[in-house]
Amino acid sequence: MNAAVATSVFAVFMVATVALGLLALRGRGKGGGLAEWSVGGRSLGPVFIWVLMAGEGYTSFSYLGAAGWGYNYGAPVLYVVAYMSCGYAIGYVVGPMLWAYARRHGLVGITDMVAHRFGRPWLGAVVAVLATVFLLPYIQLQITGMGVVLSVISYGAVSLNWAYFVAFAVTTGFVVVSGLRGSAWVSVLKDVLVIATLGFLAFSVPLHYFDGYGPFLDRLVTEKGEWLTLPGHGGGSGDGGGSGFGELWFISTTFLNSLTVVIFPTTVAGYLGARSADALRRNAMYLPAYNVLLFVPMLLGLAALFVVPGLTGAESNLALFKLVVDALPAWAVGLVGVAAALSSIVPMAVFMLVIGTMWGRSVLSLVPRFAERQKSAAQVVVVVAGSLALLLTYTAPNTLVRLSLISYEGMAQLLPMVLLALVWRRLTFRGAFSGLIVGVAVVCALVFTGNDPVGGVNAGLVALAANLAVALAVTLAGPRDADPRPDAEVLAHDPVGEDDESLDAARAARGASDHRV
Q1: Count of helices and strands (H, E) across the chain
Q2: Is the pLDDT of residue 201 over 60?
Q3: Global pTM?
Q4: What is the C-alpha to C-alpha distance for residues 501 and 508, in angstroms, rounded to an integer?
Q5: What angle (nearest 5°) sits at the alpha carbon of residue 412, between those of residues 473 and 107?
Q6: 38-50: buried (b, 16+ CB within 10 Å) or exposed (e) per residue?
Q7: What is the pLDDT of residues 45-70, one digit of tens each?
Q8: pLDDT value at residue 514
Q9: Taking the C-alpha atoms of 185, 349, 394 and 10 in order, what is their torsion angle to the nearest 10 degrees?
Q10: CA distance 326 to 205
């Protein structure tokens, strides 16, 4: 009976999710080009941008991983709150700059920006392939996360294999049809449920199991004090089974991730969907408030130490849901499961959308037969990317999970090429490309040989330092790029005082000039 009730609640909301994706198309016409599908026609207001970017950052990790990390290590999990808050502050400057650059030149993603900055379309294709390698693990992990949630809230009635397929089918269905706008609409539903369910759990779990916060926190300090300070449970050294998540790791990871998140392809998709630069600035001020919600699963992970002790490995990621299934009625379990599932669907949709856009715009467009059908090509890539992630979830679940270790650290190696190049004209193609090769090689070598962190420092930051050193050395020692375009055409700037009409006029003038050439 419990399984039927919880699964029915879940099914109703999944149907509503697809319906919202279709409803998002109302009034938008039948077609629309790649810009309408991939960045919402650059017309999303502050509210939709806020819920979309909050939704992209609040994934199944927030329900499963954050609780699991809290359960296993304790305080080190706070790096998530730290880097996201710092990233929003950096995004206050970077977001409007990238938005204006893309709008001025008619671009729809970071691969477009790289290709335009260095005047080499094939470079956008290379970056698209590299970014896909680092993004695909996130799709697989969201499929896995949603599958686990559905299986648990159905009390085992739905198998993991079927749950994985549901995650793939629902997400692919609405993102192919409605694109970024549909993801933004579904984010509204997700945020309502996330805020309601986590707010309820924050009070109900301590009351149910510990008679309130006082007894719970007193027991936590007395019996599990190691979990409340860095390096958390497991010690400060990675040798001999220690966690390795000490102060240096916390600082270096927060610094690296806060820089990387602002050029992450999914974050940039949110930037480019905005109606104006001011919407992004307001968004950067309001988004940190959403991080308060992250403390709830972290806290519930600590509560699970006393209620369901002894969880090891992947089981620790179920710490929160083991509390929920035991403490709540079936209909409430279903609602919490829906909130967690939507926290998988929204970011997974944006990941798939971004991969499709990068390939449709920067890879397949290089083939003449696909050049005029970029949107259709991108939609096909979405289905292919999702299917590949689903297939690997079934056949080789550990392969992409291992690759996920280098996702953020690998994406960080694009920082010089994407960000530094847009503000410093002197950075040459040879320098940026050489640095990228070295950075990716170093981070892969360190992670796959088990040397992350390096002396307590995040391996991605070590690789980025090598990346920058090589990029600067090759740039300063070699010849300048032979690029006749003026700085205003190549570099980005914060569009303070510029309105949408001036940017559109600049884009139109550039198009007319290109046509004359």
Answers
A1: 26, 0
A2: yes
A3: 0.85
A4: 10
A5: 95
A6: bbbbbebebebbb
A7: 666 676 667 666 667 667 777 888 88
A8: 41
A9: -10
A10: 10
